[in-house]
Amino acid sequence: MKKTQILQLLLLAGAISNVYAGEFNQMQPSKSTLTFAYKQMGVPLEGKFGKFAAQVSFDPAKINAAQARLEVDLASIDTGSSEGNDEIAGKPWFNTKAYPAAQFISSGIKELGDNRYEALGKLTIKGRSLNVSAPFTFKQMGAVGIFDGTFTLKRLDYAIGEGLWADIGTVANEVRIVFHIVTNAAPIKK
Description:
About 15% of the residues lie in helices and about 50% in strands. The protein has helices spanning about 5-20, 80-90, and strands at about 25, 35-40, 45-50, 50-55, 65-75, 75-80, 100-115, 115-125, 130-140, 145-155, 175-185.
């Protein structure tokens, strides 16, 4: 390849990425996941939520204006067994009849460097709202933005697993939440 062709390709690649540089705000539900991991009687287990929505407003150049809101349909839980799914929807656990959704609303995003950030905000489950921080990474690939993060919550702080299930020897108190949110950027209008 001639130097001029290489230069033209580089300029074209730069122009394409600049067309999409801006705010990432359109979640791709089919490519996004929300999973969790915990221990029951010392055995590591995992599960996922099949239905959740994320409203993201994220521009790496304007981090102070970034916002995130996540709503999870708690009845969409998949523990790996229908019996487990039915149990966790019940009153001692999520009580999905009274509290069908969990919600995270950010109050701010902090930049940590090297494409690492931290979302600060309130997580509400079963009517209890507590402050959480969720570290995440952000990767941009043209018009696609990918957010990957993890944080740990203590289930008993949200009354998840009441009564006999409050025994942390049976089900650990710590639950690791892992999110993979894929978004599209709105094209910049010139």
